[in-house]
Write a sequence for this structure.
């Protein structure tokens, strides 16, 4: 399930869905003007897109979204709390051409344990403007592939409250790395009780068909654009 982005130490007032362009070449003064400081790599916003973690005795680590691509960073303890990401070294993650293209066309919305939620901002009015993108490791891909298969099965049952997904996943030579779905919106905690009956009907329908959600809570119950309840 997804969770809101944690606060970033020393964060600037950059809007989450805005990313400054990056200049990786040193421009020659006589041919090109130098980019202003706000366009240098060090000043481009950096957002964690996975929970912090690491093996026992190893540095903590997480994936990072910056300059419209994905990176990985490491830091030593004593805390798993995210460090100031502008003071850590970013290691680039090589994605397949298909995955890199999908990442570059979308903007960050929320992070999750095994996937990140991104949005096709230029396709806001499409039926499936949201992208669920697996973290770049084999375990995350396998979990996302299983989730996509389950979502497709549930969609065929025509149960109310199931998020609508695009029937064709995003794939590369290693298999499924993401899938698109409808845009959903958080339900304020004070309004969750208004959806109790809807959730009861949905969960009963899942149980009758042999499915168990296992993690129903205010943070992962969302509404569609018409106000109906549905899980993310």
């Amino acid at each position: 399930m997804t969770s809101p982005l944690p606060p970033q130490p020393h964060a600037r007032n950059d809007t989450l869905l805005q990313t400054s362009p990056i200049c990786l070449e040193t421009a020659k003064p006589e041919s090109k003007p130098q980019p202003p400081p706000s366009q240098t790599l060090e000043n481009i916003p950096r957002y964690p897109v996975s929970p912090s973690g690491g093996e026992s005795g190893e540095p903590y680590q997480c994936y990072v979204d910056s300059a419209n691509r994905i990176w990985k960073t490491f830091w030593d303890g004593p805390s798993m709390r995210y460090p100031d990401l502008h003071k850590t070294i970013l290691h680039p993650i090589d994605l397949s051409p298909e995955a890199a293209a999908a990442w570059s066309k979308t903007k960050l919305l929320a992070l999750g344990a095994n996937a990140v939620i991104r949005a096709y901002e230029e396709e806001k009015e499409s039926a499936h403007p949201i992208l669920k993108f697996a973290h770049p490791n084999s375990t995350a891909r396998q979990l996302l592939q299983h989730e996509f298969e389950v979502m497709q099965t549930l969609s065929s049952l025509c149960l109310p409250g199931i998020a609508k997904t695009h029937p064709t996943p995003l794939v590369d030579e290693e298999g499924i790395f993401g899938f698109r779905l409808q845009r959903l919106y958080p339900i304020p905690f004070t309004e969750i009780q208004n959806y109790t009956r809807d959730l009861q009907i949905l969960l009963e329908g899942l149980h009758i068909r042999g499915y168990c959600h296992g993690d129903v809570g205010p943070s992962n119950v969302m509404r569609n654009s018409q106000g109906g309840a549905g899980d993310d």
The chain is about 15% helix and 25% strand.
